[in-house]
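[agent] plan:
  1. take the single chain provided in the ticket
  2. run structure prediction with default settings
  3. attach structure tokens to the ticket
  4. add a short note for the reviewer (M.T.)
[agent] executing step 1
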Amino acid sequence: MEACAEAGKELLVLDRPNPIGGRSVEGPVLDPDFRSFVGLHPLAIRHGMTVAEIALYLNGEFDLGCSLEVVPVEGWERSLYFDETGLPWVLPSPNIPTFETCLVYPGMCLFEGTNVSEGRGTTRPFELSGAPWIEGAELADALRDLGLAGARFRPASFIPTFHKWAGQMVSGVQIHVTNRDEYRPFRTGLAMLLLYRKLGPDRFQWKAPPYEYEYEKLPFDIISGTDSIRNQIETGSDLAQIEASWQDDLARFREVREKYLIY
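[agent] step 2 finished; step 3 output follows
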């Protein structure tokens, strides 16, 4: 969009469904001090928008000056998940092989900024997670005790074929989403991360840069879009306190977002 504005070219966006629906909005909103290749402008991690709606939002709120035309999706409603559209699934990444991966990704992507395996190197990336210091049954029990809505946690052990802990046995859990309308992926991923750290305080680590063309800021911070979550974790804040910290920004984002929704 910036390049089109600079070159005086019109941009045509052929819209498509958001695979995990367009109603739920969750997580922190990107702090401009942490803009990167991962995210350039303030969006909630789970934004509940389509690509065309995001284009309209960016153009309208950040003065990109792009001549923009949108072709809407026919037959899509905000309540629909991808498997309800009747469309064939085309994987957007080798590590998002199924629609079910999308359900958990908004929270499990946080593990990319740590030394916990997010299941890359398995056939169920982001649904599986694990680390050498974890007993899967203990972690699953602790997660069940939290009463996280819309999911069950099955103890699992696996050997990643590549990426973190490649060739080593790790233990953890597999997420099984049982009610996707109640399931809150970011809250769930954050709760899991807190437990991985609690169960291995001497072994859990934040991944060091570089990451996605960023050579100074920590990967976890640019994934989160802020350093406040990591700082709160390190100072002992619990899940409820951390979640409360971004609610004001999220409320403002929800209000602005409404202006650009098509469906």
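[agent] step 4 note for reviewer: The mean pLDDT is 97.
[agent] ticket updated
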